[in-house]
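Tokens for chain A. Residues wanted.
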């Protein structure tokens, strides 16, 4: 699959923009702050229902406008598909496919992309919320239905937290909180599915990650991913995050042999019982997938804290390449579109060449660069110049 035409209205600094695209490699080049990243950010939204730069959709609407529209004409073999989303400042977003209304959360069914960005270094060095977002976005791309499961789970956590805070304020005893048990069962049902889905994906990523890391770094340092589950270690260290309270970093890595809908649900239920008093004291839901983490390892050591800058970059690039390979292997609509947002500027010459070799056979690759010399010549890219929210030359 490739994007044949991209149209934007009131998106970021674009009042109106229309861009014809082709298969192969295209480089958007121009000074920083002109709108290169805004173009590829719009495509990322169609694929993941989110931005790699902000968690608030309204931030992508041009100042002074009430709504922004992203419209992409997609082509796969001899079939074309028009996919559109309208981001509204004061109401729910709306989506269309071939001019027929669809739920916004269904958009990933029709378009797939993988974004590489400087922010990816935070996958290795940043907070648990960054790693949760990575795995959850990939889950939705592979199974769009899970966008609804994730939204429902987040809503249950919010409602349960409200009940816990109210109980704390009113000093209600645990024995009087029968309503909490109703929320517990729904939390366990949705949370167990997310935990198990994440675990299955972690297992599938193992071999593609190892191959991708070796391709980028030139050595095999046995990269490994495993889950750190709060339901198996509720007494771990806590760290404040932007995802609704502290995230437990302790717990048992992996635990794949114990996972499965029944075993996970029972462990979740036992964990909730074990932290009930602490939850009432804190007014927060202290266990569940919203507080889990992924552990990344190189040569049996945690990448966070032990990996060098180059090794961290190789791991982050390996994660994105492995994601692209998984999507490519199972997709009925062809390769995902690869988007590299100013990534080559962050890499040394060896990793630039290695990455160029790893992405060159994908159907469509879109690259942003402030300086054209950062992009390896062997990619043979088509050039598009961007200035102040306008396509000024092709």
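Reply:
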């Amino acid at each position: 699959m490739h994007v044949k035409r991209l149209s934007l209205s009131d998106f970021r600094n674009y009042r109106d923009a229309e861009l014809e695209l082709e298969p192969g490699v295209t480089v958007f080049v121009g000074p920083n702050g002109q709108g290169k990243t805004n173009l590829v950010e719009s495509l990322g939204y169609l694929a993941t229902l989110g931005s790699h730069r902000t968690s608030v959709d309204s931030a992508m609407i041009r100042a002074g406008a009430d709504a922004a529209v992203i419209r992409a004409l997609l082509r796969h073999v001899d079939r074309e598909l028009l996919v559109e989303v309208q981001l509204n400042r004061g109401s729910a977003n709306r989506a269309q496919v071939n001019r027929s209304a669809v739920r916004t959360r269904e958009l990933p069914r029709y378009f797939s992309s993988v974004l590489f960005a400087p922010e990816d270094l935070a996958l290795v060095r940043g907070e648990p919320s960054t790693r949760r977002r990575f795995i959850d976005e990939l889950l939705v791309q592979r199974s769009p239905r899970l966008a609804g499961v994730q939204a429902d789970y987040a809503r249950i956590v919010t409602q349960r937290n409200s009940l816990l805070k109210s109980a704390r304020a009113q000093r209600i005893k645990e024995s009087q909180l029968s309503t909490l048990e109703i929320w517990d069962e729904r939390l366990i049902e949705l949370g167990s599915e997310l935990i198990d889905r994440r675990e299955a994906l972690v297992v599938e990523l193992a071999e593609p990650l190892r191959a991708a890391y070796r391709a980028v770094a030139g050595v095999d340092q046995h990269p490994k991913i495993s889950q750190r589950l709060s339901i198996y270690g509720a007494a771990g260290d806590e760290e404040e995050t932007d995802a609704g309270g502290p995230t437990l970093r302790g717990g048992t890595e992996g635990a794949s042999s114990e996972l499965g809908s029944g075993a996970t649900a029972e462990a979740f239920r036992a964990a909730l019982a074990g932290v009930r008093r602490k939850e009432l004291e804190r007014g927060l839901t202290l266990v569940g997938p919203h507080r889990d983490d992924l552990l990344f390892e190189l040569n049996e050591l945690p990448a966070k804290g032990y990996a060098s800058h180059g090794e961290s970059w190789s791991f982050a690039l390996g994660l994105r390449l492995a994601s692209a390979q998984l999507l490519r292997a199972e997709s009925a609509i062809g390769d995902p579109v690869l988007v590299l947002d100013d990534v080559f500027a962050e890499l040394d010459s060896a990793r630039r060449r290695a990455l160029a070799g790893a992405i060159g056979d994908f159907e469509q690759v879109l690259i942003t660069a402030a300086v054209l010399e950062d992009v390896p010549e062997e990619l043979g890219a088509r050039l598009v110049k961007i200035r102040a929210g306008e396509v000024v030359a092709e």
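Residues 234-258 have pLDDT under 50 and may be disordered. The two ends are 22 Å apart (CA to CA).
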